[in-house]
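retry 2 of 3: previous attempt timed out while embedding calcium ion. Reduced batch size to 1 and resubmitted. Inputs unchanged:
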Amino acid sequence: MRLLLVEDELEIQRFLRQSLGEAGYEVDVASDGATASSLVSRFTYDGLIVDLGLPDQDGIDLILQLRRNGMQSPVLILSARRSVDDRVKGLEQGGDDYLTKPFAVAELLARLRNLLRRNSSGKEDVTKVRVMDLELDLLKRRATRGDDVLNLSPQEFVLLEYLCRHAGRVVTRSMLLSEVWGMRIQPDTNVVDVHIYRLRGKIDTEGRTPLIKTLRGIGYVLKNH
Ligand code: CA
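retry 2 succeeded.
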């Protein structure tokens, strides 16, 4: 899967390029609209990630211009703008998606997968994650353990998806804070512990093998065997 990342903030650009690379995507980068247009005219991308505040033009105008030129790749829009204006809503109806900064990488990857999935139906089943008898349906945002549907909040779902993707490995609090909550520095917060506690209450119910293991002072491991 080849992606074009259009983002002028170098720190975010580097961070996303690395995260997307680690997730298995091939990533080209453009820091402005003109470079993006030139790349899109030369290469075919499976998807674009476009920041709205670009130095030479508005990201929305860039997307509209690319569409007029026949580009059909799905677009994930990044923006610091809190309010989703009508033009963005219009784009969303065309099959695109919108993410507000700051965002968690896990959330971005989840949205991206859904977007790419919608566009290329049925190449590979990347919509389900399974660990032991736990199953996450990424499209329906539905989690089950055995025959039981788990009633998770959206944040708990993203947290569980992250744990599942790292099953059998140690996940530290600071990894969770930065990847699931999008916090770069580690504030004095017990948000991770609180969410893990709630998640555990929903997953590791009585009579089931406990899956979430706490490593005191270090973090957590989701058991995979
Ligand atoms: Ca920007």
